[in-house]
User: Which sequence fits this backbone?
């Protein structure tokens, strides 16, 4: 029976010679002996320490071209298309585990496994898992190396695709490794595609294993991921560390790790607002972060599109950073019309995954243009035939460095003080275009009751509505009831400095199934009202479920939207909402005594108001 090696310690009892694992000079002995223990377990053919350089990226590209993992995209300089195996295209929530000592600490919404038995299962799987392959050691920093809100980690992987993607998504290399010297304050993360190569065996373009484990050990801050090379399952710095493990660190250390975009909206008259927004995967974070306002005077600067770490500052305000270094965005639906910023950003140095290829060597996906061009090759490398489904996989992705976004804020690596937080999901009915929470506790209630239609970003039935509190359902590393309490406590700590909280919904549908709200750049109108609420200049009307724009307070100038649609976007139907509350109550019920009483109070208050409308 093979057990996983124990979590790394600050200094190992038995120091290992750095030369044995090819370690760079000056690497911390605790790091070196941990890497040695992983090498002993997984038995790779060789070991490479990533330095994050452009030369290294080119070497990885050459390896992947040779293996057929990627093909060039000639129309865009230094850009490539990776075609994954069709069985490895999205996050797998059913195979994602929180291995806390006590199942109560994982809570009712996570898959819990006993750490001891998981270490046995993984020990068996990782035993010899890297035979015949190169093991890459990737030291990285989330947030600028040494920054006040930053954290360090090391990912070990046997996938060159993962290393190349980590180059774009995190700060990889020597500076991060140096910062780990003399400390155990870094997160160890091990990933294997689980496809060892026998002597002389021919490799496949996208090796993987259909047995999957995306496992987190919150107490020892470890991540072990087996079987999949898809972003959310394999780029362990992202969802696994920066959300699941970091949310536990944040609980223990008094800060917040959230599934949010981060932007600055600036008016030419000098008004500035910093806003963070939590939407479930594939519900509009990247698009909002890169929004080009349709209303005059305003500009949006991108700070982040997926993850935000926030800490109360000495001035009592909540300060936020985007800990990532790049964007891993949904390709389908992205076009010159919906997100010209993203289109410009992807014109060079981009890794595409599972998009279609045109006859003249460019990429294509559904929604980029109205009609599919002639002579497409679909995401599986076949001549495009609509009978086989879409040309690009619905969860096809692009991976680029943040600095490539024309809208990136010049100071995007620095922390910003938050003015507003928004929550949203895909709700075809019921949830209004925008409303403000009455206070922080009501805002936490709104966050805790976010619900959304499932998207292609994870396995499951696309379109089914589920509760996805704070868009963190798949990403909270501990008991969600305790997470709600942590948010309520944060409000007490911030007091009058707390950001204002809002709910938005861009996804209301009419009877014909069309979107009622034009969305994208027009969402700036909603942000303008939010900025006005923060500044105390925009008018609102208190309703049973929250504060909505007063008549005329939402800037609709130049927008073709009939009165009927507008009314519908803000209509509160007591009966429908009361039955929604039945669902909320059932959802809350599963948390038992860990549900903060404040949320019950809020639920009862909303119900009382609806009953008395
Ligand atoms: P993320 O995964 O949360 O970052 O979501 P994205 O910003 O990548 O968007 C996911 C999908 O939703 C894409 O197909 C977008 O085109 C679409 N989308 C984003 N914003 C809007 C919007 O305001 N209205 C509509 N109708 N669709 C949107
Ligand atoms: P996102 O998630 O859709 O929130 O960008 C990426 C992922 O699925 O890992
Ligand atoms: Mn995104």
Assistant:
């Amino acid at each position: 029976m093979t057990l996983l090696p124990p979590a790394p310690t600050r200094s190992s009892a038995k120091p290992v010679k750095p030369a044995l694992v090819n370690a760079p000079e000056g690497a911390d002995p605790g790091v070196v002996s941990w890497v040695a223990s992983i090498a002993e377990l997984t038995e790779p053919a060789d070991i490479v320490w990533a330095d994050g350089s452009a030369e290294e990226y080119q070497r990885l590209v050459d390896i992947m071209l040779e293996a057929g993992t990627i093909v060039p995209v000639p129309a865009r300089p230094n850009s490539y298309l990776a075609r994954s195996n069709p069985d490895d295209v999205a996050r797998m929530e059913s195979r994602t585990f929180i291995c806390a000592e006590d199942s109560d600490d994982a809570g009712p919404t996570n898959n819990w496994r006993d750490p001891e038995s998981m270490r046995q299962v993984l020990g068996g799987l990782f035993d010899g898992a890297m035979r015949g392959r190169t093991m890459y050691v990737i030291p990285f920093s989330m947030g600028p190396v040494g920054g006040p809100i930053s954290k360090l980690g090391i990912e070990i992987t046997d996938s060159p695709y993962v290393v190349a993607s980590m180059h774009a998504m995190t700060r990889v290399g020597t500076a991060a490794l140096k910062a780990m010297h003399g400390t155990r304050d870094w997160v160890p993360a091990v990933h294997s595609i689980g496809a060892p190569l026998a002597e002389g065996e021919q490799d496949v373009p996208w090796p993987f294993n259909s047995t999957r484990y995306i496992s987190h050990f919150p107490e020892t801050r470890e991540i072990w991921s087996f079987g999949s090379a898809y972003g959310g399952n394999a780029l362990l710095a992202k969802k696994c560390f920066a959300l699941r493990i970091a949310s536990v660190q944040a609980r223990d250390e008094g800060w917040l790790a959230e599934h949010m975009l981060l932007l600055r909206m600036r008016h030419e008259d000098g008004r500035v607002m910093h806003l963070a927004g939590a939407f479930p995967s594939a519900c509009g974070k990247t698009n909002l972060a890169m929004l080009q306002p349709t209303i005059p005077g305003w500009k949006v600067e991108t700070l982040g599109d997926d993850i935000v770490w926030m800490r109360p500052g000495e001035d009592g305000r909540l300060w936020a950073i985007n800990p990532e270094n790049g964007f891993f965005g949904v390709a389908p639906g992205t076009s010159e019309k919906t997100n010209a910023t993203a289109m410009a950003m992807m014109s060079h140095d981009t890794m595409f995954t599972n998009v279609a290829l045109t006859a003249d060597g460019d990429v294509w996906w559904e929604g980029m243009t109205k009609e599919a061009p002639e002579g497409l090759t679909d995401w599986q490398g076949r001549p495009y035939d609509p009978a086989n489904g879409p040309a690009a996989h619905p969860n096809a992705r692009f991976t680029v460095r943040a600095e490539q976004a024309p809208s990136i804020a010049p100071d995007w690596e620095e922390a910003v003080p938050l003015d507003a937080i928004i929550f949203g999901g895909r709700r075809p009915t019921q949830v209004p275009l925008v409303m403000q929470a009455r206070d922080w506790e009501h805002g936490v209630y709104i966050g805790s009751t976010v619900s959304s239609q499932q998207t292609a970003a994870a396995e499951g039935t696309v379109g089914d509505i589920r509760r996805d509190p704070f868009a963190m359902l798949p990403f909270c590393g501990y008991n969600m009831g305790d997470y709600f309490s942590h948010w309520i406590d944060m409000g007490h700590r911030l007091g009058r400095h707390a950001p204002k909280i809002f709910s938005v919904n861009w996804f209301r549908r009419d009877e014909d199934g069309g979107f009622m709200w034009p969305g994208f750049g027009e969402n700036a109108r909603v942000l303008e009202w939010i900025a006005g609420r923060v500044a105390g200049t925009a008018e609102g009307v208190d309703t049973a479920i929250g504060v909505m724009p007063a008549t005329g307070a939402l800037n609709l100038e130049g927008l073709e939207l009939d009165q009927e649609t507008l009314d519908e976007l803000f209509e509160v139907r007591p009966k429908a909402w009361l039955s929604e509350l039945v669902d909320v109550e059932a959802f809350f019920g599963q948390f038992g005594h860990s549900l903060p009483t404040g949320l019950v109070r809020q639920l009862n208050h909303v119900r009382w108001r609806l009953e008395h409308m």
About this structure: The pocket of manganese (II) ion (ligand 3) is lined by residues 285-286, 305-306, 329-330 (CB under 6 Å). The first helix runs from residue 29 to 42. DSSP finds 16 helices and 30 strands in the chain. Residues 273 and 476 are 27 Å apart (CA to CA).
